[in-house]
Amino acid sequence: MRRLIFLLLLLAAGLAAGAHAYHASIMDVRYNAGKQQLEVALKVFTDDFEKALSAGQPRPVSFEESPKPQVTTLVTALLTRSVSFGTKPGEALPLHFIGFQKESDAHWLYFSVKLARPVKGIYLRHRLLLDTFPDEMNIVNVEAGGKKQSALFRDGEESQKLVW
């Protein structure tokens, strides 16, 4: 357990640093019981994410140079394919994409997930960028029910149940 915590701290510190020699993302999930929704902020390296967005496109996609509506459409599609939240195994509740914000060499992506009723846990499938980078590590921090917890998602460990 200490090794996992050390690894998570090391990766989190590295995301804030300049260059990177690994592929990782950090997702912060907050359960808003009053609104019955999950509020999500996802930090990704810009160059890695642009590479994934560009797959299958006639020209490379850039947050800075591509038209914002095109980028928003591609981001939403990639998130919908790669990340799913549910209240039961295999369920994929709709993601409501809010927007994105640049931070140094990374971007924050913001979205929410409406829940039909109060919950004490969620099922999360998180395989963002695994098709582009098999060594991708997706760190998830959840704040819900007065608890904070972290989980690591990577190739072969793409789905987990998070309980609070």
From TrEMBL:
Keywords: Signal. It holds the Pfam family DUF6702. Residues 1-21 form the signal peptide. It comes from the Bacteria. This is Uncharacterized protein. It comes from Hymenobacter algoricola. The lineage of its organism: Bacteria, Pseudomonadati, Bacteroidota, Cytophagia, Cytophagales.
